[in-house]
């Protein structure tokens, strides 16, 4: 057993209001520079929809992630040799038009234009060329199913759908949509790291954060193609790749990442998970339908004596172990089985988990009113084939059982609390439903508390200051490290000539 | 006199410049070492430029290099006429391949507004020099028969004398202008190498072939904690 720590996340989608505050917080801190205007390390997309970059889930187009070869995983797009042969032109690289051409407006024209019969307008100008342009796409172009039915209809998750189901789908589109906020998943088997020929990308041993070393990156752009979530971005100005850093400078000082901190819906949870790195390779080989459980399988119980001993062996201090024991992520993912990874069929083992939203199911069942007191909910839920199938395609590599399990439990928690506060349900019936969903009253209470009333310190549980520990560990003589604070000499990230 | 300057001092200056400045740039401004790929901004035309250019020029340069090491064997090979023709034809085709790729790259760089936004003056100088150099090479291949044998007999001894630090320019005096220019062009490219995007050659990531896929970096000293 090789106990590793992974900083992991849960996003509770039923709480996301699609306000994009997270995206803005991130942009203001990290990507408000030339070359990064188009990057949204955190983006929020409407589902059903084609997402950002357009159709990123369609790996026939982008060929990201891994696939199961004979007994071994291989990168879908490339092999080592083939990769190097393609170094002069990457066949599956997304281009700026798959995102959007960043733009601003010539606001000055509003003040400077001569008097005339018409109102002056501020023309859009490209932030790449500086020339006037026609805006054809932008971030969240299809927000809230806006603009055109084209976006929803082309959602890659509808690929295996029959004619009859299409009818239902139309209902779904008409009735409901939900949001998926996405950041880098800081995967356990990151395709981006594996594909980088320069070795610029790496996973931090202490917390599993995946980073690009800007000094080592040479702009070969394999990572952009290989990440199936399209969460590495090419800075067209500096000629280097950049990605979400999980705000590690904030984490190290005990602050939640900017997108977490600013989240209006408080949908985000951050916590430590222990996992067994020795069993990683084997569990990545599971069949598609078993992938969710395979991933949960290598997550270790932080109360287990052996696990704790293993954690100590890898240098983890008491506060790290305590944080893992209080991890909200551990509860949502492993204990309660409410949260699911995004597209596990890409086989990177993403460590950002989503609690699937109830809304599409309710919407499909009940029309415009999202009535939650239906006794026959369980049977009805299974009749709503399309939404389940659709959610399963996103959150459980097609395994509908996993989505159902989560939805049922979420539903039962509501019923349980309703019977407590409104008192209009037969307690016997509530108990039956709890049983059927594999939930106890205590667990339901805990889920309710952590979902609806968590304080900031319950949502973000991680040990601060591991950088200080690192210095102490690397440098037995801490006195010698005294002068090493700060960043020291750094090079300006200017483009080469 | 000119010949001494251009064919004895210049190559050494160029070479020293290339080594010293590349090293200094790597140490002091390592961030600027990048392929500076612009595929992200323009994809289609890059394919028709970058691919023929790179494969063409790599093959041609490899040819130059191989003959530098084994001029005798080449002359032996060229003794049979059809082999000579085949070799010359292959060389010319590859050079034309590179030339077409280069022309496409130039048109793309000048014609596309997005690409112009990421074009430095050095890029333009480099493209012009490369065009000149490849052009002269093609001219040599077409008009001076037979380039490959001639290179082995006349240029390789000179180049070798440079490498062995006993510069001998007796051969140089009889070279036609085209060939002199081609050689000087080559030295010039070496000289400006460290000031251009050509430095991406130095960071070609061949070590990828041997390294395991995943890379984990620890700040903690794990072995220390495992012993404790
Ligand atoms: S989401 Fe993409 S960029 Fe992030 S770790 Fe996974 S493969 Fe790498
Ligand atoms: S800030 Fe929170 S609620 Fe708002 S879009 Fe982002 S994740 Fe959703």
TrEMBL record, chain A:
It comes from the Bacteria. Gene3D superfamilies: 3.30.70.20, nitrate reductase domain like. PROSITE patterns: 4FE4S_FER_2 (PS51379). Transmembrane segments: none annotated. The keyword Cell cycle does not apply. GO terms for cellular component: cell envelope; membrane; nitrate reductase complex. PANTHER family: NITRATE REDUCTASE BETA SUBUNIT, RESPIRATORY NITRATE REDUCTASE 1 BETA CHAIN. This is Nitrate reductase subunit beta.
Automatic annotation (TrEMBL), chain B:
The keyword Membrane applies. GO terms for biological process: anaerobic electron transport chain; nitrate assimilation. The chain crosses the membrane at residues 6-26, 46-70, 82-103, 124-144, 181-210. It is found in: Cell membrane. One of its GO terms (molecular function) is metal ion binding. The lineage of its organism: Bacteria, Candidatus Glassiibacteriota. Heme b binds at residues 54, 64, 182, 200. InterPro entries: Heme-iron_electron_transfer, NarG-like_domain, NarG-like_sf, Nitrate_red_gam. Residues 3-218 form the NarG-like domain. Keywords: Cell membrane, Electron transport, Heme, Iron, Membrane, Metal-binding, Nitrate assimilation, Oxidoreductase, Transmembrane, Transmembrane helix, Transport. It is a multi-pass membrane protein. NCBIfam families: narI. This is Respiratory nitrate reductase subunit gamma. GO terms for cellular component: nitrate reductase complex; plasma membrane.
């Amino acid at each position: 057993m090789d106990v590793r720590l992974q900083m992991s996340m849960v996003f509770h989608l039923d709480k996301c209001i699609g306000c994009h505050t997270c995206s803005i917080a991130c942009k203001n801190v990290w990507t408000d520079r030339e070359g990064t205007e188009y990057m949204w390390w955190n983006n929020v997309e409407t589902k059903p929809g084609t997402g950002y970059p357009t159709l990123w889930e369609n790996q026939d187009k982008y060929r990201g992630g891994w696939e199961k070869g004979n007994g071994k995983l291989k990168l879908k797009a490339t092999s080592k040799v083939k990769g190097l042969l393609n170094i002069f032109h990457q066949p599956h690289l997304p281009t700026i038009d798959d995102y959007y051409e960043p733009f601003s407006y010539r606001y000055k024209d509003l003040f400077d234009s001569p008097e005339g019969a018409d109102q002056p307008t501020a023309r859009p100008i490209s932030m790449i060329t500086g020339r006037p342009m026609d805006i054809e796409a932008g971030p969240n172009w299809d927000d809230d199913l806006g603009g055109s039915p084209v976006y929803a209809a082309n959602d890659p998750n509808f690929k295996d759908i029959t004619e009859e189901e299409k009818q239902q789908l139309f209902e779904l589109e008409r009735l409901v949509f939900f949001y998926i906020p996405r950041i880098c998943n800081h995967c356990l088997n990151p395709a981006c790291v594996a594909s980088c020929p320069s070795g610029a990308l790496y996973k931090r041993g202490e917390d599993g954060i995946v980073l690009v070393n800007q000094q080592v990156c040479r702009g070969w752009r394999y990572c952009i193609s290989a990440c199936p979530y399209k969460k590495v971005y090419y800075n067209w100005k500096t000629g280097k790749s950049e990605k979400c850093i999980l705000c590690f400078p904030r984490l190290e000082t005990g602050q939640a990442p900017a997108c977490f901190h600013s989240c209006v819906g408080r949908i985000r949870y951050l916590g430590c998970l222990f996992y067994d790195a020795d069993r990683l390779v084997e569990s990545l080989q599971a069949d598609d339908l078993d992938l969710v459980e395979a991933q949960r399988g290598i997550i270790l119980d932080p109360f287990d004596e052996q696990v704790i001993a293993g954690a100590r062996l890898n240098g983890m201090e008491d506060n790290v172990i305590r944080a893992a024991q209080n991890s909200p992520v551990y509860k949502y993912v492993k204990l309660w089985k409410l949260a699911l990874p995004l597209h596990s069929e890409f086989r990177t083992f993403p460590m950002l988990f989503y609690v699937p939203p109830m809304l599409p199911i309710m919407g499909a069942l009940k029309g415009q009113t999202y009535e939650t007191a239906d006794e026959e909910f369980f049977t009805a839920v299974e009749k709503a084939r399309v939404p389940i199938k659709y959610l399963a395609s996103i959150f459980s590599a097609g395994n509908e059982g996993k989505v159902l399990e989560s939805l049922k439990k979420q539903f039962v928690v509501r019923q349980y609390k309703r019977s407590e506060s409104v008192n209009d349900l037969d307690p016997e019936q509530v108990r039956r439903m709890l049983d059927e969903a594999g939930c106890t009253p205590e667990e339901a209470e805990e889920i309710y508390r952590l979902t609806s009333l968590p304080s900031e310190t319950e949502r973000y549980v991680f040990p601060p200051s591991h950088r200080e520990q690192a210095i102490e560990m690397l440098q037995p003589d801490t006195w010698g490290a005294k002068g090493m604070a700060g960043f020291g000499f750094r090079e300006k990230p200017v483009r080469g000539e | 006199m000119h010949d001494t300057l251009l064919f004895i001092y210049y190559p050494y200056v160029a070479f020293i410049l290339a080594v010293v400045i590349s090293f200094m740039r790597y140490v002091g401004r390592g961030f600027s070492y990048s392929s500076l790929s612009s595929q992200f901004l323009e994809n289609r035309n890059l394919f028709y430029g970058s691919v023929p250019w790179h494969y063409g020029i790599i093959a041609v340069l490899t040819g130059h290099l191989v003959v530098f090491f084994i001029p005798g064997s080449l002359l032996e090979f060229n003794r049979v006429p059809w082999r000579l023709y085949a070799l010359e034809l292959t060389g010319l085709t590859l050079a034309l391949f590179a030339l077409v790729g280069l022309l496409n790259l130039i048109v793309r760089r000048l014609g596309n507004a997005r690409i112009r936004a990421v074009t430095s003056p050095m890029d333009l100088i480099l493209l012009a020099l490369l065009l000149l150099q490849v052009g002269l090479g093609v001219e040599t291949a077409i008009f001076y028969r037979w380039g490959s044998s001639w290179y082995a007999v006349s240029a390789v001894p000179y180049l070798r004398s440079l490498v062995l630090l006993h510069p001998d320019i007796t051969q140089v005096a009889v070279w036609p202008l085209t060939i002199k220019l081609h050689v000087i062009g080559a030295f010039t490219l070496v000289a400006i190498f460290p000031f251009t995007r050509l430095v991406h050659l130095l960071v070609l990531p061949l070590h990828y072939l041997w390294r395991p896929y995943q890379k984990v970096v620890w700040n903690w000293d794990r072995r220390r904690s495992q012993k404790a």
